[in-house]
Amino acid sequence: MAYEDRAFAEQLAARGVTRRDFVKFCGSVAAMLGLSESMVPTIASAVESAAGSKLYPAVWVNGGACTGCTESMAQATYPDVATVVLDILSMNYMETVMMAMGADAEKALYDTVNNNEGKAIMIYEGSVMKGWDGNALRVAGEPSLKILDDLAPKVAAIIAVGSCAVDGGWVKAGPNTADATGVSMYLAEKGIKTPVINLPTCPVNPEWIVAMVVDVLLLGELESGAILGKLDAQGRPKLIFGQTIHDNCPRRGHFENGEFVYQFGSPEEAKGYCLYAMGCKGPQTQTNCPIVRWNNQTSWCVESGSPCIGCGNFNWVDNGAPFLGRMRKVAIGSGSHNGGFAPGVAGAAVGGVVAAALGVHAIGMAATGRLGNMPDTEDVKEHDRKKGGDK
Amino acid sequence: MARSVIDPVTRIEGHLRVECEVENGVITDAWVSGGLFRGMEAVMQGRQPSDAFYIAQRICGVCPISHGHASTMAAEDALGITIPNGARIVRNIIEAAQFLHSHILWFYTLAALDYVNPAKALEANIADTYALAEAAGTSTANFAVVQNKVKTLVEGGDLSIFTGAWLDHPGFAADMPAELHLIAVAHYLEALEIQAEASRVIAIMGGKFPHFMTSIPGGTSWMPTEEKLDDVLFRLMRVRDWVMNTMIPDTLAIAPFYSDALSYGGGTGNFLAWGVFNRESLEMKDRYLPNGAVFVPTSGLTVQDADPGKIAEYVEHSWLSEGESGLNPADGVTVPPKEFPGYDTGDKYSWAKAPRYDGKSTEVGPLARMIVAYLRGVEPVKALIDSTLEKLGAAGKPEVLVSLLGRVAARNLETAVVADWSLEWANELIAAVKGGGVEFFKPLENDNGKGRGMWEAPRGALGHWMNVQGGLIANYQVVTPSTWDISPRDKDGVRGPMEEALVGAPVLDPERPIEAGRIARSFDP
């Protein structure tokens, strides 16, 4: 069976990937997609047979990007980026890695979409730059909006990777000089109905892209429409973005015990205590970072001693800053997708020990009464005060 | 006479257009246009200095570590903080890991395809490929499998990232053996894993890469454990071995086939480095790669200290032209236009400003750093450059480095130097932790001050300026390496460094100016 495909195994081996690594990867994809372990051979053979047949046409378009999501994709390990772009997808346009340049590169973009109408996948990285009639970003002598205007209606789906593509990201943060927005918002303005799968965080975690590629393309969920049922109201796959970081945090035990870090470089930090008092946005941020982790599962933000800054939240900079030491009242208990977390996750869990620990250290934290004994928040954030907002 | 255009310039970070005038096969004039304006500096206004660290690094997804460090240093300078020694060493290692990651990615993933042609790899004889790899002193791979993979791509018609490529371009060195093309393609694939390994060092110490979490103003939030220190050291050793046994020999094997690139692509000959990798003094001049300014056309191969006070940014040919021109970034402004002025090479044609050092159009990057370090007698840089010049048949002539090939070689030599130093720093940290009492963080106390963080990204000199009033950022300015290198003309009409480097370069086919692509990418813009 294809699962034992020798040629494929040799190709992997040439890149230092063993059979075991590959099966491990298929297992992690299955887990991420909420599939049972019995699906692992199906995923493996889907990947292998994709490698041996006509590849799936795809284009990767950079909007107002820092290229961090492409970079992040390049950190994918099982399978590595070469497997994704050479064995599964035919990535005919990807500015940062493609060999072609100039007009021939643009031709590859347009030909791929036009010659595969309704079939090609577009991966979009970076903010949609609307400023100055789209001249905030010029590509091939034109405002880059032209690429979305021309091609978005003709692709099967768009995967918006990274917070910039999802909602404008940091580029949209106040005062949003260049009028940035996200892909799905822009398509809604233009009345373009192409489905958009949103994969926020800054940058995107490559494992999520790989999981979507397998799910959407190889398992045929785009064609069947099944994928749409797996997305939440923000167009994010529920299985990846359905739980908060706090839900799965390995430091959760310290939270329950009221063991907090109050200063970087302290003995508490050395012990790996909970970073909630340092402003951790884990309770409000819905991603599976603690499980999937980053850079081939090497580590993740909280493990490195840093509070989560909520880079996967809606308008994460304006809603999350100041990132250290404070929680924002607006975010607590909103219970919605807009940077809020579900009450009952952290709120119900803040018991006497936690409250005592937070209270003993007089760092401006007092019970608000809103959600048990949560630490206080600023009533008006300085940045918003400046802008005349009242959040 | 014809206009030859590359837009977009692919295989770089960001959006760039290169337009050249070509006469009798030679570029006679050039305009480089930065295509994107996002408004980072405005986003900073009114936020806390520590927020700037998290946000500013998102200027660049390939060099976020350097932006994070420059931002944090600006905050520390503004608020009068001297970081503890433990944090200094941790930052050196994280920065080194990013340099290794970035340079490996640049050479193999971004630049190599201007010199190496996968189509030619199909003609290679496998046995000869192993023999050549051995002769060149570079590592071997499963060459048959790699060749077969390329064959499958070409025959299957799904060219993927090679779609639309100029595989038949006469600009590829005709005498470069097919076997060397195949070796390079194999290492192109291998490099993906090695650059990812370097990134994993950042992930251990910074949470993830790209974009990291730990180098906050005051020090670092990462605290080492024995296990993590071992992990860092082991991974750095793996990367270092690959650089020495694969990347450096590959560079030396391919370079002779493009030795004509020693005779063009040099640019303005003015170089600037703020320096990178701090010693305990934290002084710019004392850094492992020290600061310095070199003006070859006017002062020859002599180096002077670099002074951030000598920067002025001009906007006459930029779309950001409504602010005052000629300001130093400490008091700089970024004023976007009310109406888009239009693309006009005779007037305004780029989102980039035109920074000038002491009035001069000045190049930044590994070439600038290596020249400065060479002239300051920094070892092992000096010895390494001398031996490389000998191998390139230019012994005792460091001035040949002011060229396209010199710029490529400088980056790869720097990779070797930093790879060695990274192990030194990992061991320094291990010793410091074993010794006990090492500290990693000092809290912020002040609320007001003006500061700057002068540092280096892999692609060149980087500065962040921060003015903090009442605990909030009142003004923020950034001068990125690319702003120096891709700068448009200044108030006197003097070309930017990349524009100048393009002038005089040969172009075989103005419709497919692969040589202009090589020069643009040699800056790693």
Summarize the structure.
With 391 residues, chain A is α/β, with parallel strands linked by helices.
Describe this structure in words.
The complex is a heterodimer of chains A (391) and B (525). Chain A is an alpha/beta fold and 391 residues long. In chain A, β5 and β6 form a beta hairpin. In chain A, the strands form four sheets. A five-stranded parallel sheet of chain A has the order 2-1-3-7-9, with helices on both faces. In chain A, strands 4-8 form a two-stranded antiparallel ribbon. Chain A contains 19 helices and eleven strands. Chain A folds into two domains: 54-239, NADH:ubiquinone oxidoreductase-like, 20kDa subunit (Rossmann fold, 3-Layer(aba) Sandwich), CATH 3.40.50.700; 245-387, Cytochrome-c3 Hydrogenase, Chain A, domain 2, CATH 4.10.480. Mean pLDDT of chain A is 82; it is low at 328-351 and 359-391. In chain B, strands 1-2-3 form a three-stranded antiparallel sheet. In chain B, strands 4-5-6 form a three-stranded antiparallel sheet. In chain B, α4 (85-111) packs antiparallel against α8 (178-206). Chain B has 525 residues and is α+β, with helices and mostly antiparallel strands. The two termini of chain B are 27 Å apart. Helix content of chain B is 42%, strand content 13%. Chain B has one domain (2-522): Cytochrome-c3 Hydrogenase, chain B. In chain B, a hairpin with a 2-residue loop joins β10 (460-469) and β11 (472-479).
